[in-house]
Known about the structure:
The structure is a single chain. By secondary structure, the chain is an alpha+beta fold. The protein folds into three domains: 15-86, Orthogonal Bundle (434 Repressor (Amino-terminal Domain)), CATH 1.10.260; 96-137; 142-218, Immunoglobulin-like (Sandwich), CATH 2.60.40. It is built from six helices and eight strands. The strands form two sheets. Strands 2-8-7-4-5 form a five-stranded mixed β-sheet, with no helix packed on it. A three-stranded antiparallel β-sheet has the order 1-3-6, with no helix packed on it. Helix 4 packs antiparallel against helix 5 (76-86).
Amino acid sequence: xxxxxxxxxxxxxxxxxxxxxxxxxxxxxxxxxxxxxxxxxxxxxxxxxxxxxxxxxxxxxxxxxxxxxxxxxxxxxxxxxxxxxxxxxxxxxxxxxxxxxxxxxxxxxxxxxxxxxxxxxxxxxxxxxxxxxxxxxxxxxxxxxxxxxxxxxxxxxxxxxxxxxxxxxxxxxxxxxxxxxxxxxxxxxxxxxxxxxxxxxxxxxxxxxxxxxxxxxxx
Length: 219
């Protein structure tokens, strides 16, 4: 009985065809190899088609070749020598230069943009809180439409009307005005002969008071 002789792979001289025939000999699809090695499919195709300009510069393309060769069970020394001969113009002074630039584009710049967006969001939140609390603590608007300043009258009572903010409460000489509706208020007060001082105050829950005074002289 004749001894079993394993089939030898016929390999052409150029680098790309050696890789392609080794893969086909093992009945492997390039998509499966790319997934297995975690190397982009276009890089493996570039190696097989000897389109080295599509590979990353420096050691990265060389390392992709080495991983591919080892995966196919070929001699890496022979292939790396082919790589050296066919890529004599490869820059050796700084082999990582192009990859670092690409990495900075995809990692550093998005990180800077992310930090800027976060800073802007924090600034907007602080500005919102600042104006929100300022609005809370500021005294409400208070306009007294009646009586006029320094009024002289012979009546012993007087209608006081005005407007403030709808959530504010109004007090006249310390007495709460009950008929305050949507900021409009009116209240009749009794007067005594002589000089009467009216103190009208408006205040929201957490705000400071807004105060308007009127001097009424009853003859």
